[in-house]
Amino acid sequence: MTDSSWPRLRVSDWTDTRDTLHMWTQIVGKVRMAYAPPVNHWWHVTLYPGPRGLSTSAVPYGQGAFDIEFDFIDHVLRVRVSDGRSREVTLEPKPVATFYGELLEALSSLGLEPRIHAVPNEVETAIPFAEDKTHCSYDGEAAQRFWKQLLQAQRVFERFRTEFVGKASPVHFFWGAMDLAYTRFSGRLAPPHPGGAPNCPPEVMAEGYSHELASFGFWPGGGEEGAFYAYAYPEPEGYAERNAAYYDQSLRECLLPYETVASSPDPESALLEFLRSTYLAAADLADWDRPALEALRP
User: Fold this and answer.
1) How far apart are CA 28 and CA 55, in angstroms?
2) pLDDT tens track of the chain, all 298 residues?
3) Within its chain, how far is the Cα of 188 from the centroid?
């Protein structure tokens, strides 16, 4: 018997919507980045799954704040400012260029005029937002299912996060690669990252990977229904061998297909086993100070 609370969504059934939504989240993430104070490893640019969709959370602006939320229940993008005003952009099939123009108009009407680099990052073909008429799909049911997948992943990641008392990231959504991510750090500096992400400056990767880490996440690719992933930077010797059941040699990451978790009799336990075993491989092989970094379990 499988757990029906883990939504099923074949990547092939929503690829066009996924790619359009990816561009929309990049635009909103860049608006947040324009106003939020910088935080290490780019933690100030991310989005967060919430009870209705994906949100920037509160972003400082003047003497107040604003937020932007993808509401995947009512299918609107909602911009709210702390003086009570708000604007909405309908989420429906439309080109990225149209969405971008409508959002800028909504922001301007609220006194927000962000300066952003209006070209997507971490994608092979980077069409400027104002010119992108290629990505124009929106399947509301698929977007809602993806958000509910993120909520389930977030719930388990948050439980996993309680087991670590060292430096760790929030559980957050990076719009560059369109993944939900959580990262643990050993406390040591890492060698300079070589870069290599498409349409992404090397200094971005250098900041993101400045310290030794073990990272975990969920990405709507890498399997028929997306995949959970884990990797270490720098990757310690023996990491692939110790994670032989999960390790993908082409990606140099550990992968666990979403469908494997969702069809398990106990999805939470299946995902926690993946997270814990890949973390232990990274921490043990790189000689992390585990007694100082891990929470004592009752």
Assistant:
1) 9
2) 445 799 999 999 999 999 999 999 999 999 999 999 999 999 999 999 999 999 999 999 999 999 999 999 999 999 999 999 999 999 999 999 999 999 999 999 999 999 999 999 999 999 999 999 999 999 999 999 999 999 999 999 999 999 999 999 999 999 999 999 999 999 999 999 998 899 999 999 999 999 999 999 999 998 899 999 999 999 999 999 999 999 999 999 999 999 999 999 999 999 999 999 999 999 999 999 999 999 986 5
3) 24
For residue 102, give the amino acid letter: E
Q: What is the pTM of this model?
A: 0.96
Distances (CA, A) of 196 to 176, 200, 202: 13, 8, 7
Residue 128 Cα distances to 29, 47, 202, 211, 268, angstroms: 15, 21, 20, 32, 40
Tokens 């890949």 -> residue: 278
- Between the alpha carbon of residue 133 and those of residues 26, 58, 129, 211, 279, the distances in Å are 16, 30, 9, 39, 42
Helix pair angle (267-285, 140-161), 10° resolution: 50
